[in-house]
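Hey, does this match?
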Amino acid sequence: MSFMLDMEPGRTVSITEERESVLTYNYGESVLFPYFHPIYAPDGELVTDKIDGIEQDYKSGVCFSFGKVFDSNRNPLEFTKITDTIDQPPSNIEDVIEFTNSIIWESSELKLLQTTNITVYPLQDDVRIIDLSVEMSADSSDTLLFKNGLGLSYNAIEMDHKKVADSEGRIGEAEVNGKEADWATLGGITSDSAIGSAILPDNANGNAIFHSVDTYRGYLSAQYSSMTLNPDEVQSFDFRFLIYLGDLFTFDVQECYTQYKYMTKKN
């Protein structure tokens, strides 16, 4: 099993496995928050792609963002991205492919540091696994408060018979939205394949609240209501993202979550 990596410095990191496209990671000045787009299912079907050329308010793919930020006096802070870089990884890796994205955000006299480590695993049993580990710290003497929009989101292409479900057995957009769960999955049919995607947050992140849209474009996110970042503190958020062949009745997301929990406990 062999990965290949191709970089367009300051713009994209593209990954292939056995010469088949896996995903492209978009970063740099052209985007606000870096994101994976497109992502391919195990059968080669695209599961994230541009929709009707709409880009200004809708980015397909997987993206970590941090929402609104306030200082200790509850004054809103506006951040500008100063640097957005990729650590240069080797171009040919046998087992997994791993790279790190480092971003510096600036607001007035303080800086926010965001480091994301991405690990892509070889395709196994028609499942693609991508792990994201995000660390955030601030060069500031003040305590920062993050509210609304902090977490991992996934925007999918249009699919037929799209449906969302979570670890609590809830099925459907109305049932899942705004509820806490260990994981949630969004699936549908494209061409002749049933394709699912799932967000599995690490328990150490805190209580994840899921939001979804299971019609038209398709959307799934795991968010956290708030986060406090103290001076000299590092906050971490870990997620596992799955793309798999199958539907709610043929693929066991809970088993994947159990394996992920076991792995994170060992580490």
Q: What stands out?
A: The chain has one domain: 3-266.
